[in-house]
Every structure is written in structure tokens, then in C-alpha cells.
Specification:
This protein is of the alpha+beta class and about 160 residues long. The protein is built from 5 helices and 7 strands. It has a single domain, classed as Aminopeptidase, CATH 3.40.630.30. The protein is globular and about 35 Å long. The model has no long low-confidence stretch (mean pLDDT about 90).
């Protein structure tokens, strides 16, 4: 697992599009909208957010990105786009992503992480709860997908590991 930058745009684009094809119900974005985006879009996106890719011998198996919060989300950063290939789930990839975020908390404003998850994505909610996220507030209406609701969750970097 490692952070990636603008020069890794093709790798990031490929796994992001795979995530949108494999689990479209998990995201606010769509494969159709993101698959037509040009190289400059992907490079700019990688310059604005911190992207992490999990990799094994088969290639890239997971993605997560961290954005600075510019709104009142009761957190210092917002976790987005989390996804792990189905064949690599359940082996600790999400935990490894959050361990990386925790390791950066002393030097980056990532001590309190927030995220949003669709209220009907029970497996993701359980996975997030297992690594320390808790629900905050009531479910919120989506602005990207009218009629859907998401649950805001929050987690604080532990003093000693997860």
C-alpha cells in the first residue's frame, strides 16, 4: 500500500473505473461519467487529494482517497472512494489504509476521519465499524443521487494502533 501522485493517473483511473463497474451501487459517481474524463482530469484529481493504492503480486487491489475537509463534517479529513477488489476483501486492506492515515496524523491534519456510506451498504458499514468508525447524526439525503441516503461516520486516530 502506498500513496500515488499525478504520474500514476493511469493506474488510479483503471482501478477507480473497475470499482465503479464492479460495485456501482457503492458510489455517488458513475462509470459512465468518469470513463470519459481526459488525462488532465485524472492528473488534477491526483494533485488535489491524497490517493492510496493497495497492491499485491496480481496488481492494484484497493483504492482510497483522503480529502481535506472544507465544510463542517465534524472531522479533519474525509475518506472517499474506498474499494477493494472482491477477491481481496476480508484480508485487512481497509485496516491497512487506515493504519497509513493514522501514521500521517502527527504531520497531517488527519486525526479525525469522516466518511459517508449509503445506508443500505451493510457490508461497508460493518467493515467501517470494525475499524473504529461510528455513526454521527441521522442519515443524510444525497445530492449526487436523489432519493438515496448516506450515513456519516467518524473515527479518531487511536493513540496506539487501531
Amino acid at each position: 500500500m502506498a500513496p500515488v501522485g499525478p504520474d500514476d493517473w493511469e493506474r488510479m483511473r483503471l482501478i477507480r473505473l473497475d470499482s465503479l463497474k464492479e460495485n456501482p451501487e457503492a458510489f455517488g459517481a458513475t462509470f459512465e461519467s468518469e470513463s470519459t474524463r481526459p488525462e488532465r482530469y485524472w492528473r488534477a484529481r491526483l494533485s488535489k487529494s491524497d490517493f492510496l493504492l493497495a497492491t499485491d503480486a496480481s496488481g492494484d487491489i484497493g483504492i482510497m482517497f483522503v480529502d481535506q475537509v472544507d465544510e463542517d463534517f465534524a472531522s479533519s479529513c474525509w475518506i472517499r472512494g474506498c474499494w477493494v477488489r472482491p477477491e481481496s476483501r476480508g484480508i485487512g486492506i481497509m485496516r491497512a489504509f487506515l493504519e497509513y492515515v493514522d501514521s500521517q496524523a502527527p504531520v497531517r491534519p488527519w486525526g479525525v476521519q469522516g466518511l459517508g456510506v449509503w445506508v443500505d451498504n451493510f457490508s461497508a458499514i460493518t467493515a467501517y465499524q470494525n475499524i473504529g468508525f461510528v455513526n454521527i447524526d441521522e442519515a443524510q439525503p444525497s445530492t449526487s443521487q436523489p432519493g438515496k441516503f448516506y450515513q456519516r461516520m467518524i473515527r479518531t486516530t487511536p493513540v496506539a494502533g487501531i
